Amino acid sequence: MSTPYIFLHNIAFLGVGLFSYLGVSQTFQLVSGIITLILICSSYIYLFETRSSSLQMNKWKMKRPWVRGIYHLVVFLVGFTVIPLIYLKPEDQLAAKLDSLAWDPCPTREFFDNPVLIVSTDPNLIRFVFWFLAPCFLLNITFHLVFHVSCTVFYLYLSPNKSTSVEHRKNQQKFFLGILLQTAIPCILLLNLGFVVIYDGIFHSLSQKAFNLAFIFCTAHGIVESVTILIVHRSYREAVRNIGKKKKKVSDIREPAILQKYVRI
């Protein structure tokens, strides 16, 4: 729908894809992309929180549904705080485009040939987002993930429930390792982009091609996660195989009927 083309040094955004072809505003594309990223991170937290809360011995689990709802809403709203800052964008985008050249006087050709969105030219606001708001968002996500993973590891491996059978415990451990692997590989791709941004913020030596390449790797996290799910979870592999078998059975049933029709003719 919309592929982000980010000019990191100029703090500019360009959406490339169907949305741009349909004339959807660059602001809407940027906001929807950030919300999608926040939802991805929140879904990982929800996944591990659900896993840890399913353990009976976990003293930290949230038993009431409304408490869990408020908890996950707060986690989402912490990341959502960056959205209002986007609407503080300069009103005169042409002048802001010229001002942004002070940060990087030689951007790629796409910067001049397309209606890019200059998010901000205020150096104080840029420093606030990059050095305070973004790290707080990352620390918030990391803290909740580490907390729920630690609770699961402790009550599943170090202090397991003795009333559960050994077989059931092994199945729980196997499933936990599966979802851990399922989320770890895509998270590595997402963290790769974060490290690239931090590296450029410190050394200011990253080219646009290198950043585009890192972003392409980051956007591949969905495909990588889908493949990982098929690898680590047997039930999903069997479901995919059954789909293929059903199609084959349907074709086997239809072929004799078609042949019989031609024989009668």
UniProtKB/TrEMBL annotation:
<keyword id="KW-0812">Transmembrane</keyword>
<feature type="transmembrane region" description="Helical">
    <location>
        <begin position="30"/>
        <end position="48"/>
    </location>
</feature>
<feature type="transmembrane region" description="Helical">
    <location>
        <begin position="7"/>
        <end position="24"/>
    </location>
</feature>
<feature type="transmembrane region" description="Helical">
    <location>
        <begin position="128"/>
        <end position="158"/>
    </location>
</feature>
<keyword id="KW-0472">Membrane</keyword>
<feature type="transmembrane region" description="Helical">
    <location>
        <begin position="179"/>
        <end position="199"/>
    </location>
</feature>
<feature type="transmembrane region" description="Helical">
    <location>
        <begin position="211"/>
        <end position="232"/>
    </location>
</feature>
<dbReference type="InterPro" id="IPR053220">
    <property type="entry name" value="Nematode_rcpt-like_serp_H"/>
</dbReference>
<protein>
    <submittedName>
        <fullName>Serpentine Receptor, class H</fullName>
    </submittedName>
</protein>
<feature type="transmembrane region" description="Helical">
    <location>
        <begin position="69"/>
        <end position="88"/>
    </location>
</feature>
<dbReference type="InterPro" id="IPR019422">
    <property type="entry name" value="7TM_GPCR_serpentine_rcpt_Srh"/>
</dbReference>
<dbReference type="Pfam" id="PF10318">
    <property type="entry name" value="7TM_GPCR_Srh"/>
</dbReference>
<keyword id="KW-1133">Transmembrane helix</keyword>
